[in-house]
Amino acid sequence: MKLLLLGSGGYHPSELRQTACLMLPSEGIILDAGTAIFRVREHIETSTLDILLSHGHLDHVIGLTYLFDVLYGKEVDRVTAHIESTKIKPVQEHLFADVLFPVTPPFDFAPVEELKAVGDCQIRTFPMEHPGGSTGFRLDWPDRSLAYITDTIASPDAEYIEHIKDVDLLVHECYFPDGLDEKATLTGHSSATNVANVAKQSGAKNLVLVHVNPIFNTEDPIGMDVVNDIFPNTRLGTDGMEIEF
Ligand SMILES: [Zn+2]
Ligand SMILES: [Zn+2]
Questions:
Q1: 142 C-alpha vs ligand 1 centroid, how far in Å?
Q2: Alpha-carbon span 159 to 127, nearest angstrom
Q3: Which residues surround ligand 2, an ion (CB under 5 A)?
Q4: Is 90 exceeded by the pLDDT of residue 109?
Q5: What ligand is nearest to the CA atom of residue 12?
Q6: Cα–Cα distances in angstroms (integers) from residue 229 to residues 88, 152, 157, 200, in the given order
């Protein structure tokens, strides 16, 4: 199965990275709706699209306002944005306020807690620590599995680890290199060594790092040596990367 990293950055777009958006074209599943969602258009293969939102921060939902263009001329019967139930109203009222974006594209919101499956993909959701809270995702098919963990604090006692055990592919945020751990905890984000240790502890087979901090606009914003020493099967996610799993 193919996972597309359409946007591998956090906070704001940079010359290298748009903000959070991943896609499983064959399943019609999109993970987060950051600025990179404009790239979904050329990869649509299905008549339904399910957008799984980790939370309501702008770098993960602003792309909902781009859906008119994403869907233009496409034969898509249903688009559903799944987000924690308590966040539906605030996103509707604020992102689609008359003063900000006065028309709502053709999609519906649904409580992510009620999402159990898309086709033969079983979906598990779980709450994570982040300002305002975020949702983690584990997707299981009969023969493979994927976890998407973003906007949370990686640590050896993080409760979400129990949900991502032995996953084939772990996509995990890594907003900070080592040395900025205090800042990571303060802002509800993760740093390099902690993410590598979570991957190791979970028994994941492969790790891909996303939600990269745009201020570190270099080829090695995380310190990949540090991560690879602890968890060798790690790749730094980049926009346009295709991952087979
Ligand atoms: Zn974010
Ligand atoms: Zn956030």
A1: 30
A2: 9
A3: 57, 151
A4: yes
A5: 1
A6: 41, 22, 21, 11
